[in-house]
Design a protein that fits this description.
Layout (H helix, E strand, L loop, with lengths): L6 H12 L16 H15 L3 E7 L6 H14 L3 E6 L12 H11 L12 H20 L3 H4 L5 H12 L8 H17 L2 H12 L5 H8 L10 H14 L5 E6 L2 H4 L4 H19 L6 E7 L1 H5 L9 H7 L16 E3 L5 H19 L7 H12 L4 H4 L2 H17 L5 H9 L21
Parallel strand pairs: 1-4, 1-5, 2-3, 3-4
Helix pairs in contact: 1-16, 2-3, 5-7, 7-8, 8-9, 16-19, 17-20
């Protein structure tokens, strides 16, 4: 099947793959062998857009496609008018903390907000301004005045009431009043052309105002977003986004292995307890319009000494590891294995990569079926392939082969492949970035 890819997407894909990372744009062109998973994601998103919630764990070893799956979810969700945030969990960003690390996670979530029309991140101010303009249009129609006139100070209370009508009806109370206060201050900043007031309102919503004293002084708000209440703010944002006309809120947490690596048992358990709380609320619709995803290794989920399954209440909810190896398809499970692509699927993926590469470099490179088969055979025959060869490595090496073919057009493709992967090929070793099994102290 011939794919069509525009030059901008091709540029994003090739540059990302050359660096060994997942592209932010155009991932649909690399979507091979995941049709059942994509169908399930679409089903869940439709369910969430109706006011429900859900949670999924996408499980695989290093380089198996966890990050790619989360980017795929991001892409599909944006197309379906969700607001999306995809972030990495790190030692300084956790679900539970008492030193600001949980609030840092919240701030990162908000800083990485994407919408269908604002896909470069940091879309919060755009989202709020669009909503204020929507409210202004409603008031203008009701009062039979121009939208410009709505921003006259004498209509302040009418606009404030509109904002409070929305936030006051949230099912998750949490920080809804404080969120409304911040949005009111943002509106007042527009009316008075006070850029600092608008900035402070955004800082509050992002969690960048850390003390009650500053919040009271700058905005007249008596509470702030903290390590303890950040998830309440997330639930409020999910409802707000839905009231603004979006389908809901999707949050993707990658690198969940960083929770597994936390050295202190008590700290791990507190983080797992918070994930249990999120799990329970998403499964019981205790939060509206929210879809949470995790990219995790098997050990992160199923290790009964350090993983999520070491927390008793989670273990029963996540199921057994043996189910990961079943040949039967069941995408309705909460914990979903990312099974390796078949040789046929890898072949199709490499064909797609050739088309994308040609679009990026404006070339007409052609690798015959025999050439791609030779490449795959030589990769699979390298020492260490069974243990360490990952889809990420296969793709990155294939891009390098295309580079060599493009720049050495007089040399047969088979010669180029054999020169890199022939009898003298280096064995495949553990990727230096694969630290999934390392227990670090921090």
């Amino acid at each position: 099947m011939v794919i069509r890819v525009n030059p901008k997407e091709a540029d994003s894909i090739v540059r990302a793959l050359e660096g060994g990372v997942v592209p932010k744009k155009g991932v649909r062109h690399l979507l091979v062998g995941r049709s059942e998973e994509v169908t399930e994601v679409i089903t869940v998103l439709n369910h969430v857009s109706e006011g429900n919630s859900d949670i999924r764990f996408w499980v695989g070893d290093f380089g198996s496609g966890k990050s790619f799956m989360l980017r795929t979810i991001e892409s599909i969700a944006l197309q379906k008018n969700f607001i999306v945030s995809t972030i990495d969990l790190t030692p300084t960003r956790r679900f539970y903390a008492s030193d600001g690390k949980a609030k840092a996670l919240y701030s990162e979530i908000v800083d990485r907000l994407l919408t269908r029309t604002a896909q470069n991140g940091n879309a919060l101010n755009t989202i709020i301004e669009e909503w204020i303009n929507q409210l202004a249009a409603q008031v203008a129609k009701e009062q039979d005045i121009s939208i410009t006139t709505v921003f006259d100070p004498k209509y302040r209370q009418v606009m404030v009431n509109k904002i409070l009508d929305v936030t006051g009806s949230f099912e998750s109370v949490g920080l809804s009043f404080e969120l409304a206060q911040a949005i009111v201050k943002y509106y007042e900043g527009i009316v008075t052309d006070d850029r600092m007031l608008k900035l402070n309102a955004l800082r509050f919503i992002r969690g960048d105002i850390t003390t009650k004293t500053e919040a009271k002084r700058e905005l007249g708000i008596t509470r702030v977003i903290t390590d303890d209440n950040w998830y309440d703010a997330i639930k409020n944002l999910a409802e707000l986004f839905a009231r603004l006309g979006y389908a809901g809120f999707v949050i993707n947490f990658d690198e969940a292995v960083n929770l597994y690596k936390l050295p202190m048992k008590q700290t791990r358990e507190r983080n797992y307890e918070k994930i249990l709380n999120i799990y329970n609320e998403c499964k019981a619709n205790g939060v509206n319009h929210l879809f949470v995803n995790f990219g995790a290794t098997r050990k992160t989920v199923f290790d009964e000494q350090r993983g999520l399954s070491s927390y008793g209440a989670l273990k029963g909810r996540l199921g057994s590891e043996s189910a990961m190896d079943s040949t039967l398809i069941n995408t309705n499970r909460t914990v979903l294995p990312l099974k390796p692509l078949t040789n046929e699927e890898i072949f199709t993926l490499l064909e797609h990569l050739t088309t994308i590469y040609n679009t990026h470099y404006k070339t007409t490179i052609t690798l015959e079926m025999a050439d791609i088969q030779l490449y795959m055979e030589e990769q699979l025959n390298r020492p260490g392939a069974a243990q360490f060869l990952t889809p990420r490595a296969v793709i990155k090496d294939y891009i390098e082969i295309l580079d060599l073919v493009r720049q050495n057009s007089d040399t047969p493709v088979s010669t180029i492949i054999l020169s890199k992967f022939g009898k003298n090929a280096d064995p495949i070793e553990k990727d230096k970035d694969n630290t999934d099994d390392d227990i670090e102290m921090w």
